[in-house]
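The record is given unchanged here:
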Amino acid sequence: MGVDGVATDRQNDSLDLSFPATEAEASKGIATLSARLAAQGLPSCKSDDVKIALAEAINNVVKHAYAGIAPTNIRVDCCLFKDQLVIRITDTGKPMPDLQPPKGIPASVDTSVQELPEGGFGWILIHRLASEIHYERRDGSNLLLLRFEFDDAS
């Protein structure tokens, strides 16, 4: 059975990793996850998309969920199926504003360079690269689900 009870042929066992929510450890964790997913058979045509979205999501946890509080661990669970990859990122940092991920809508560029936003571009990438994004706050934890669909012939 796949995520949410959807029957899907699992390609390999799940991949789980936990690491401290710091920039250095997040960078190592992202590299480790990317390498392990490639070794488990993630289609090469999706590897860059997954790595970019994973990096943006995890770096947001480090930067925003743990801003001003002591970091704990980020847990990443990946399940690779023949036609999709499901990634669940869990942390105990602060919840997302309004208990939902940002919409990923680009800010207007019809303004002066000084007034352009400094951030917010990561969620634009995540929305464009992932097939599905789901967030919830449960029992003091943030749960972010990213789903990447691909053709099993890829």
DSSP finds three helices and five strands in the chain.
